[in-house]
């Protein structure tokens, strides 16, 4: 009943090929956007933005980025943490070197720099595949972390090796530093997340996305039908790293404010984002959001339920949290190996016929 | 659905939050994760002291203490979540026990006007209270530690270190890098040769560093380590037969957890400390009567008297004393975080006061002021006695080299102030 196409007529190609062809879906999407932009900022407080919304939005961008590489182009990468670090350190260097330029452009430029670094580390993908490529990107992860720890120019020679985000504002409203308002940082991240999601969605629907998917499905066949693997793979690395870089820059500048490379961008960050992509659904923009929500929100929810509502000891709750999240991951992957996005697709099919399935 | 559940859970948390008539302390502890072995005793000691005050004295100045614990797992992101979720409860002071989380919280807590006490860790230049108005690191900081270690070496060498080789094995992070500047400055003054050996997190692999030590044969090795890195380093030092009495760790590298795995080989290993060891104090009798025997001990209750337990206890004691001072200054018992800051700035620990608390000769005497948030920089050296299975204090409390440290602190805090547009001052 809900996701019906009957009576929803399209009279032009533009209408026919839009992102959400089903009317109900489209309205739901508009509703979410209006809700996120017009209602949430008025009710949000520090806890909600710092513990829930900001990590969710930022990890969503990172997951979208990695999904383009792994889910759409089939190139496994374990270097996400390292690329996020590039974004973070690039934005830090830009913010301190050009204090007069708006932070908005710094974040985008940080994404651009990360894209270049990503292309560089994507070069081995032209010769190696699969697990071997994963190992090559793992090298990127360790090299980049080592680099940012070792070369003091990257952290402006500070004694501790930490980088701290200076205060910067957009339209006179502070978005980085200590004295930020919850709604401002939230909206700043939301704008980036929505823009990234729209760009990613349209890239993957178009010719470029089809080339990536051709490479993913069978690279030799793709080459025979005229897809240039060099351009396709490197462009996937570039676009993916661009998004991951933006996520890293926001993660450092807006969310944490102070970052130490080994702790914030270590190998566990690469795994976390990869898990988001796998659990959410490979090759799906919605899946990136779902995966990020699952791995960011569920632990917070469990903590609040077990410690806050039930009053259990914190260590017991923390251990249980690991077990529950772990068990759920296994259950989800057995029940639906294609991730939460596929579950959503199946649910949609069912809802289309509901309540009269025959 | 998920959001709704979070909302209900959150509502429950808010509903469960105490009435403001109590004094609330937060404990950002880590009983899980890679550093849990060290986090547990500290958290237990911190919690037990407040339980004792509640049971024996009915709280602080008649106000019951409400301790809100939050598990960080030594993870900065969880630390932020913990800070945001507990700051609404009116927590008077934050003690995150993690240099990373401290750095994170310095700007946030400053903006929210809540004091942070990073006791023996965190940002050293926070000692300059004119710049870091809400951050305290008394009674001693890392630069004090570096200076005290060198002072001890001077003492055992008859005041001359020229031509000696000192190696620093450090955790390759903000924490481990802290002493480098100080050790370099002191090297200029005393003429020893410093070599740096970084160890990457978590520090399970140190073969190459210790191979280098075996080759270079430094006279002394200093260590800035935490968690598993300490155990591995001490084991490696035993393996290359490095003389243990020439191996000195910072106070975070000197707990039972660190030396016990190496067995008898660790005998003679030294570590700095800013409080005393063992349970031979009147306070521990009260602790037994009012907390342990009543079954109120935190955690498993098996940590009492370990080095890190005592440190947690000491941290809680200093917090409680600062709260008492604040109550005295403002004449109210239900103090606010801002009043707590005033209490911390006026804190004075004397021998008489500590004896009265049942902890005679437990920590150094020091006083805090607005200009000086770091105390007087006294520390001592402890040594591990493997046969007896206990740490022993082998020196008196000695003061760090203030002539060298003060300019460094001025410079670093001035850099922070200019970076963040802070005008230094006490108002």
UniProtKB/TrEMBL annotation, chain A:
Q: How does the entry describe its membrane topology?
A: Multi-pass membrane protein
- Specify the protein name: Branched-chain amino acid transport system permease protein
In alphabetical order, the GO MF annotations are: branched-chain amino acid transmembrane transporter activity
Specify the species: Lutimaribacter saemankumensis
Checking InterPro entries in the record gives:
ABC_transp_permease, LivM-like
Under CDD domains, the record lists:
TM_PBP1_LivM_like
Pfam families attached to this UniProt entry: BPD_transp_2
GO CC terms of this entry = plasma membrane
- Asked if the record carries the keyword Cytoplasm, the reply is no
Main localization category: membrane
Q: Enumerate the UniProt keywords alphabetically.
A: Cell membrane, Membrane, Transmembrane, Transmembrane helix
Cellular compartment(s): Cell membrane
Q: Where are the transmembrane segments?
A: 27-44, 56-83, 103-123, 130-148, 183-200, 236-259, 271-296, 316-335
UniProtKB/TrEMBL annotation, chain B:
Instruction: Recite the UniProt keywords alphabetically.
Output: Signal
The lineage is: Bacteria, Pseudomonadati, Pseudomonadota, Alphaproteobacteria, Rhodobacterales
Respond yes or no to whether keyword Iron is given for this record: no
The protein here is known as Branched-chain amino acid transport system substrate-binding protein
The signal peptide, as residue positions, is 1-21
Q: Which InterPro entries match?
A: Leu-bd (IPR028081), Peripla_BP_I (IPR028082)
Originating organism: Lutimaribacter saemankumensis
The UniProt family comment states:
Belongs to the leucine-binding protein family.
One Pfam family matching this protein: Peripla_BP_6
Q: Where in this chain does the record put each Leucine-binding protein domain? A: 23-385
Q: Which domain of life is it from?
A: Bacteria
């Amino acid at each position: 009943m809900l996701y019906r196409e009957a009576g929803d007529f399209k009279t032009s190609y533009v209408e026919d090929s839009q992102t959400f062809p089903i009317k109900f879906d489209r309205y739901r999407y508009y509703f979410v956007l209006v809700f996120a932009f017009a209602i949430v900022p008025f009710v949000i407080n520090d806890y909600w933005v710092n513990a829930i919304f900001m990590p969710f939005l930022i990890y969503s961008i990172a997951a979208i980025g990695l999904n383009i590489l792994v889910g759409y182009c089939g190139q496994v990468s374990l270097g996400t943490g390292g690329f996020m670090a590039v974004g973070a350190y690039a934005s830090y260097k830009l913010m301190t070197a050009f204090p007069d330029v708006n932070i908005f452009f710094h974040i985008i430029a940080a994404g651009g720099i990360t894209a270049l670094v990503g292309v560089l580390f994507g070069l081995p993908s032209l010769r190696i595949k699969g697990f071997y490529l994963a190992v090559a990107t793992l090298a990127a992860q360790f090299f980049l972390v080592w680099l940012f720890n070792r070369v003091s120019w990257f952290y402006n020679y500070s004694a501790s090796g930490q980088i701290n985000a200076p205060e910067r504002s957009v339209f006179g409203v502070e978005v980085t530093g200590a004295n930020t308002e919850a709604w401002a940082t939230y909206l700043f991240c939301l704008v980036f997340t929505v823009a990234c999601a729209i760009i990613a969605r349209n890239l993957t629907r178009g010719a470029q996305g089809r080339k990536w998917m051709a490479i993913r499905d069978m690279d030799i066949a793709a080459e025979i039908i005229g897809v240039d693997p060099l351009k396709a793979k490197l462009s996937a690395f570039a676009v993916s790293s661009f998004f991951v870089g933006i996520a890293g820059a926001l993660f450092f500048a807006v969310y944490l404010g102070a970052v130490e490379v080994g702790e914030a961008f270590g190998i566990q960050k690469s795994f976390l984002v990869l898990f988001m992509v796998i659990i959410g659904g490979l090759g799906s923009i919605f899946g990136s959001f779902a995966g990020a929500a699952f791995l960011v929100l569920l632990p917070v929810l469990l903590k609040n339920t077990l410690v806050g509502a039930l009053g259990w000891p914190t260590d017991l709750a923390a251990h249980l949290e690991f077990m529950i999240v772990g068990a759920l991951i296994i259950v989800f992957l057995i029940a639906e190996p294609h991730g939460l996005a596929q579950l959503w697709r199946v649910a949609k099919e069912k809802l289309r016929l509901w309540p009269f399935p025959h | 659905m998920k959001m709704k559940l979070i909302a209900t859970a959150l509502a429950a948390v808010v509903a469960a939050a105490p009435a403001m008539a109590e004094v609330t302390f937060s404990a950002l502890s880590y009983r899980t994760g890679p550093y849990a072995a060290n986090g547990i005793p500290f958290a237990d000691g911190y919690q037990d002291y407040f339980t004792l005050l509640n049971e024996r004295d009915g709280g602080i100045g008649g106000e019951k203490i409400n301790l809100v614990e939050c598990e960080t797992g030594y993870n900065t992101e969880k630390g932020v979540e913990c800070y945001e979720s507990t700051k609404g409860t009116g927590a008077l002071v934050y003690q995150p026990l993690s240099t990373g989380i401290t750095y994170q919280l310095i700007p946030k807590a400053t903006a929210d006007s809540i004091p942070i006490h990073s006791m023996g860790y965190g940002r050293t230049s926070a000692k300059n209270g004119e710049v870091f108005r809400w951050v305290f690191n008394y009674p001693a900081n890392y630069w004090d530690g570096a200076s005290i270690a060198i002072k001890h070496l001077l003492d055992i060498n008859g005041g001359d270190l020229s031509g000696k080789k000192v190696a620093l094995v450090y955790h390759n992070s903000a924490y481990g890098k802290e002493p480098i500047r100080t050790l370099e400055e002191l090297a200029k003054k005393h003429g020893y040769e410093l070599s740096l050996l970084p160890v990457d997190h978590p520090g399970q692999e140190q073969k190459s560093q210790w191979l280098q030590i075996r080759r270079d044969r430094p006279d002394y090795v200093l260590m800035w380590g935490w968690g598993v890195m300490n155990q591995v380093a001490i084991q490696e030092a035993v393996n290359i037969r490095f003389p243990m009495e020439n191996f000195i760790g910072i106070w975070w590298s000197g707990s039972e957890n660190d030396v016990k795995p190496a067995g008898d080989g660790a005998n003679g290993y030294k570590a700095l400390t800013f409080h005393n060891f063992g349970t031979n104090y009147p306070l521990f009798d009260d602790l037994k009567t009012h907390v342990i025997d009543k079954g109120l001990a935190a955690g498993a209750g098996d940590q009492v008297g370990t080095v890190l337990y005592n440190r947690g206890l000491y941290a809680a004691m200093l917090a409680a004393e600062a709260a008492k001072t604040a109550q005295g200054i403002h004449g109210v018992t239900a103090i606010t975080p801002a009043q707590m800051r005033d209490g911390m700035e006026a804190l004075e620990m004397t021998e008489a006061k500590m004896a009265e608390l049942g902890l005679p000769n437990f920590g150094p005497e020091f006083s805090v002021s607005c200009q000086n948030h770091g105390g007087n920089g006294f520390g001592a050296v402890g040594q591990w006695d493997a046969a007896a299975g206990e740490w022993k204090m082998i020196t008196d409390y000695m003061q760090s080299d203030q002539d060298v440290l003060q300019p460094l602190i001025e410079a670093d805090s001035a850099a922070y102030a200019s970076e963040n547009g802070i005008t230094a001052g006490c108002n």
